[in-house]
Amino acid sequence: MTVTFDGLSVGDSIPAGSYPLTRSDLVRYAGASGDFNPIHWNQRVATEVGLPDVIAHGMLTMATAARAVTDWVGDPAAVIEYSVRFTRPVVVPDDGVGALVEVTGVIGALDPDARTARVDLTAKAAGVTVLGKARVVVQL
């Protein structure tokens, strides 16, 4: 039996999103979050600890991926639950372009009684999945 609610069905896709991240974004995020770890802004330090280059903050990556859902549902306050596993870092080169986080989402579950939908996200950067088991529950 297929669950449908509000014109949605399990397996439906939400609109994909592509979100650029630049070194400037990392600096602004560091200031807002208080996370000034140099792996997020200093290439020398990042490579000394074995990273390929400066990487985006995990929480910034997570928030960026959630934009696909909040853009789709139209209200960031509709998110009532969000969880991910960090699988790979988002490398942000200092080339004037940065990184592109590409996000797709599929309705994984619907609860008509609670008026919620679970959206299962796939987030990739440079063709590599950067978040695993990314699931967002939204109030419809």
UniProtKB/TrEMBL annotation:
Belongs to the enoyl-CoA hydratase/isomerase family. GO terms for molecular function: fatty acid synthase activity. The lineage of its organism: Bacteria, Bacillati, Actinomycetota, Actinomycetes, Nakamurellales. PANTHER family: (3R)-HYDROXYACYL-ACP DEHYDRATASE SUBUNIT HADB, 3-HYDROXYACYL-THIOESTER DEHYDRATASE HTDX-RELATED. One of its GO terms (biological process) is fatty acid biosynthetic process. CDD domains: SAV4209_like. GO terms for cellular component: fatty acid synthase complex. This is MaoC like domain-containing protein. It comes from the Bacteria. Residues 18-107 form the MaoC-like domain. Signal peptide: none annotated. InterPro entries: Fatty_acid_synthase, HotDog_dom_sf, MaoC-like_dom.
